[in-house]
Amino acid sequence: MEPGEMGRIWAAHYYKHHSNVDSHRICTSICSLIRAQASTNVNLKATLARILGEAGISMEQFEECEAEP
């Protein structure tokens, strides 16, 4: 999945992921996809920042969603 597509889906679901279980699952799935894509590069932090930037997802939102159960 391309970063732009992940960003569009994220924008549609992030702000309701606390109150909607389906939105929560979608956001955590996107986090997993992004983490997997970033892990293929030696410089994980820079690659993660690049993918998030291309998707239009803030690092704060990403980290918040990843930290949630």
Folded structure, characterized:
With about 70 residues, this protein is mainly α. It has one domain. It contains 4 helices and no strands. The chain has helices at about 5-15, 20-40, 45-55, 60-65. Helix 1 runs antiparallel to helix 2, helix 1 (about 5-15) packs across helix 3 (about 45-55) and helix 2 packs across helix 3 (about 45-55). The protein is globular, with a radius of gyration of 11 Å.
List the domain count as a whole number: 1
The SSE string, one letter per element, is HHHH
Report the strand count. Answer: 0
Give the termini distance in whole angstroms: 24 Å
What share of the residues lie within helices? over 70%
Radius of gyration: 11 Å
Q: What portion of the residues fall into strands of 2 or more residues? A: under 5%
| Major sheet characteristics | none
DSSP summary: helix tally: 4
Overall pLDDT score? 95
Question: What ranges have pLDDT less than 50 throughout 5 or more consecutive residues?
Answer: none
Specify the overall morphology: globular
The helix/strand class is mainly alpha
Please summarize what this structure is.
With 69 residues, the chain is mostly helical. It has helices at residues 3-13, 21-38, 44-55, 59-67. It has one domain (3-67).
